[in-house]
Amino acid sequence: MKAAAFAYARATSVVNALELLAMHGDKAKVLSGGQSLMPAMNLRLLSPDILVDIGGLAELRGITVRGDVLVVGALTRHVDLLRSPEIALHARLLRDAVAHVAHPAIRNRGTIGGSLAHADPASELPACVVALDATIVVRGSAGERRIAATEFFRGIYETALLPDELLVAVEVPVAGQGSTFFFQEYARRHGDYAVVGLAARAVVAAGRFSALRLGFFAVGDRPLLAVAAGKLINATVTPALLAEAATALADGLDPHEDQQATAAMRRHLAMVLFRRCVAALLARPELGMGVGK
């Protein structure tokens, strides 16, 4: 299939992009890297009247550290996340996850802002920003606002973005002492859509979690922050406690079923990832640079 007919406008600045979005409202879609948007349009999942191309806006690119916050511009490409020393030092989870995103040709064009705004529930980066307790920065005709990642994703391809708003940056708390990460996904082949995946950030001290955030993906209509992880914080993780947390996690999952996997299979794989994640994070907390791939 091919996309339905649409108009095209290339924004010359963020201000110009916002003017175009205000003019066309929900009939417009923003084009950044296009690696998610164009396939969806070709399948007629999306049929905007106009594409607003922001791909040339250098002001939305770049990775900087401001105090205790890592700021990633919305047009920062996946390949830049892979190569960035700032990402490797302060948010290794993003680098580990991006290595699983599709293939090099996609990573060379795809952007972090495009991935988050597209809100595919099987996508790696939405779960990562949830696990990292990131803030999504958006700008619109009414000004700028910051949205917690846990509040940003509303459903399949649905976010808290208003029709006249543009995602401009992602703010991630820098990794502190004792921080460690875990990322793993199950897919039929490397680069395929994930059947189930888990992105995690933890702070470990004296063999205990003082913080633990688990972001599952491909188990529902949006990334899932596992509330059950709270049972493991400030506690000695015994087999009994781990089993209790796993049961609570399983009860909180409502995975969908499709051609890739049954709901039961997704729930089982999520449990496997949960146990593997906890073991890996507790086994190597001294690294503080991420474990698991």
Protein described:
The protein is an alpha+beta fold. Helices cover 33% and strands 27% of the residues. A hairpin with a 6-residue loop joins strand 13 and strand 14 (224-225). Helix 10 packs antiparallel against helix 11 (263-283). The longest helix is centred in the last third of the chain and has 21 residues, at 263-283. It is globular. The two termini are 35 Å apart. Residues 285-293 have low confidence and may be disordered.
Strand order of the largest sheet: 4-5-10-6-7
Query: How many DSSP E strands?
Result: 14
Q: Radius of gyration, Cα only, in angstroms?
A: 19 Å
Morphology: globular
| Helix and strand run | EHEHEEEHHHHHHEEHEEEEEEEHH
Distance linking N and C termini: 35 Å
Low-confidence stretches: 285-293
As an assembly, this protein is single chain
Average predicted confidence as pLDDT: 93
